[in-house]
Design a protein that fits this description.
Shape: globular
Radius of gyration: 13 Å
Structural class: mainly beta
Distance between the termini: 40 Å
Strand content: over 45%
Order of helices and strands: EEEEEEEEEEE
Helix content: under 10%
Number of strands: 11
Number of helices: 0
Length: 115
C-alpha cells in the first residue's frame, strides 16, 4: 500500500519553467525507481524521465537538456525540473513509483504550455 501524490502542474507560457514534485508514502521498505510519464490527448502514454535508487537517470530524447529529474530518498520524493517548455510538452504528467518491484501511480497533474 503505497500512495503517490503529484503536484506542481499548471499553465505556463512557452519558454517558461515548472517544477513537479511527487511524494510516495505508506508501506515503503525500498523504492527501486521513480519516474515521470505523460499523456497528451489522443496520444499514447510515454516515459519522460526516470531515476533509480542509485541515481541512474533516463530521459526521453525530446526533453534532454531541458528537463532534470532528481530525488530525495530520505523524503521518498522525486522532482522534475522542466525548463524551456514547449507547447508539445502539454500533457497530463503521471508519477510512477516502483517499490519492491511493484508499480504505483499518482493521479496525474496537468501541464499546459501556451505558445
Amino acid at each position: 500500500q503505497v500512495q503517490v501524490v503529484e503536484s506542481g502542474g499548471g499553465l505556463v507560457q512557452a519558454g517558461g519553467s515548472l517544477r513537479l514534485s511527487c511524494a510516495a508514502s505508506g508501506s515503503i521498505f525500498s523504492i527501486n525507481a521513480m519516474g515521470w510519464y505523460r499523456q497528451a490527448p489522443g496520444k499514447q502514454r510515454e516515459l519522460v524521465a526516470s531515476i533509480t535508487s542509485g541515481g541512474t537517470t533516463t530521459y526521453r530524447d525530446s526533453v534532454k537538456g531541458r528537463f532534470t529529474i532528481s530525488r530525495d530518498n530520505a523524503k521518498n520524493t522525486v522532482y522534475l525540473q522542466m525548463n524551456s517548455l514547449k507547447p508539445e510538452d502539454t500533457a497530463i504528467y503521471y508519477c510512477a513509483v516502483t517499490e519492491r518491484l511493484r508499480n504505483y501511480w499518482g493521479q496525474g497533474t496537468q501541464v499546459t504550455v501556451s505558445s
